[in-house]
Design a protein that fits this description.
single chain, mainly beta, Porin, twelve-stranded antiparallel barrel, two-stranded antiparallel sheet, 2 helices, about 45% strand, globular
């Protein structure tokens, strides 16, 4: 089987680092397939720029239910990084997650294929979303922007070469410098569930 991990030189001509934050853009390959490969499982396998399994999500539900059960984001060795607990409320879907501290992440569809993400904290007073998407996640062509309008990540279709583009199940994720990859992976899971 051929490899699906990133060809870094095609997107950024520099060395990729495998950490949760970097000083240069990092390129990841996301494969919407459980690393366990069981029939009927639903999940993601996320590879770093060197082709190593960096994150994974395994969901063994036989039916794809948008808000069924917890989602566990693990590192490549299977160690839990965070748990997302989907909930549906009056403000739309929300996902509680535990990363380094307890936060509530609320995502809602703002318009068509675009979403707004609020990270609720005890002292939150702003109605401006912490993050928002521009573009179409379903078509694997979108940006994740912070509250200041700066791009923090981009999702694009995975290209093998100039004439071959892979299906929507395999795509590239480019995370900008100094952005936490674990947080972006949480957004990726949330977007997959709400879209």
């Amino acid at each position: 089987m051929s490899k699906i991990h990133p060809t870094v030189s095609k997107i950024y001509d520099q060395e990729e680092l495998t950490t949760t934050t970097t000083n240069s853009p990092s390129v990841w390959t996301v494969w919407k397939k459980s690393s366990m490969g069981f029939h009927g499982s639903d999940g993601f396998s996320i590879y770093d720029g060197k082709g190593r399994l960096a994150f994974r999500v395994d969901n063994y539900s036989r039916k794809h239910k948008c808000f069924a059960g917890e989602l566990l984001l693990m590192d490549g060795d299977g160690k839990a990084v965070m748990t997302l607990r989907p909930q549906v409320g009056s403000t739309g879907p929300s996902f509680s997650y535990l990363l380094r501290e307890s936060l509530q992440l609320t995502a809602s569809v703002a318009c068509g294929d675009e979403a707004e993400v609020f990270m609720d904290a005890p002292d939150r007073r702003s109605s401006v979303p912490d993050f928002r998407t521009e573009g179409c996640f379903r078509r694997r062509n979108c940006k994740i922007m912070d509250r200041d309008g700066q791009e923090v990540a981009r999702i694009i279709r995975k290209e093998v070469n100039e004439s071959v583009t892979l299906s929507d199940d395999v795509f590239s994720l480019i995370i900008q410098p100094n952005m936490d990859a674990e947080l972006i992976m949480a957004f990726l899971l949330v977007m997959d569930r709400i879209f």
